[in-house]
Amino acid sequence: MKVVIIGGAGRVGSNTAYALQLGGVVEEVGLVDVAEDAARGEALDLMHGSALVAPQRFRAGGYELVPQADMVVIAAGLRRRPDESRLALINRNVALFREILGKARETGWKEGAVLLVVTNPVDVLTYLAVRESGLPPERVLGLGTMLDTMRFRSLLAEHFGVDPTQVDALILGEHGDSMVPIWSTAAVNGVPLRSLPGYTDSAVQRIFERTKGSGAEVIRLKGGAGYAVGVAVREVVHSIATDRRAVLPVSSLLQGAYGLGQVCLSVPTLVGRSGLEGHIEMELWPEELSGLQRSAEVLRETIGKVL
After folding, report:
1. pTM of this prediction exceeds 0.85
2. Rounded to an integer, what distance in angstroms lies between the CA atom of residue 281 and that of residue 217?
3. Helix, strand, or coil here: 237?
4. How far apart are CA 234 and CA 117, in angstroms?
5. Domain boundaries, the chain
6. Which single residue of 2, 6, 30, 300 has CA 20 to 30 Å from 230?
């Protein structure tokens, strides 16, 4: 599989390229960026590392790379400011995103290509991509709450002193302030959280609040997230590249699942070579379902104001 990252010289784009290199699955990674020299430098640096990792090709270029790509990742965007909500980014990012979509559509998509939106606010921009990319809706995904779910699991693992890869807990809904923690199924290797030593309602609620504020915390400490985002993108890319059909909390256009429609947000989604291969309607507690519905309302309201 050939992957093109638009915004490939930025923090998120370059970290994503490095994560894909360490994964050793994709055949080629192309980097497109307005900072052309930086993109060439990133590609050269990655190419040097290939001698000890995998037989992959890394190159920099312009939008002429898009028609050759099986998967296009859009990571270009204006950086989130400290204490700025992701939804507040939309007025600063939508014009840039539309420009990127226009250039990509003009050069043309490869038949069967999948688009993955990483730029924030990801749910709103994923909806914009569904409307304006020219791709079928099932071939447009957003990173959604993949990163929030990773953060949630890692913080729960730290609190309970367990292996983070054994934590099974989901964040659904908006990648932003109205995200919804799914406590009803949260477990560690099948053991419900409530059965673990150290569990209290207040403790796990604090963990969720820290999860929700983790983006701003990382921005305050180092300027922005990168490594974890790259790993999250790699998980989605690999599921598509290998047709793994993993169930992931990615953002996509809902058309009836959970009683929701005409909005992009994260629900459990079957992800394979065709992109979206189905939404899975899990049983939720009433407050979780109402939280998901509120999240959809927040996003629809924003979409109505800015698109």
Report:
1. yes
2. 32
3. helix
4. 13
5. 2-142, 146-306
6. 300
Q: Is 3.40.50.720 the CATH number for 2-142?
A: yes
Q: What is the pLDDT of residues 143-192, one digit of tens each?
A: 999 999 999 999 999 999 999 999 999 999 999 999 999 999 999 999 99
3 state DSSP class of 271: strand
Q: Report the catalytic residues.
A: 175
* Nearest CA among 155, 133, 173, 114 for reference residue 297: 173
CATH 3.40.830.10 fits 146-306, yes or no: no
DSSP string for residues in 179-198: -EEEEEEEEETTEEGGGSTT
Phi and psi at 244, nearest 5°, equal -75, -20
Whole-angstrom distance, CA of residue 225 vs CA of residue 2: 25
pLDDT tens per residue, range 215-236: 989 989 998 999 999 999 999 9
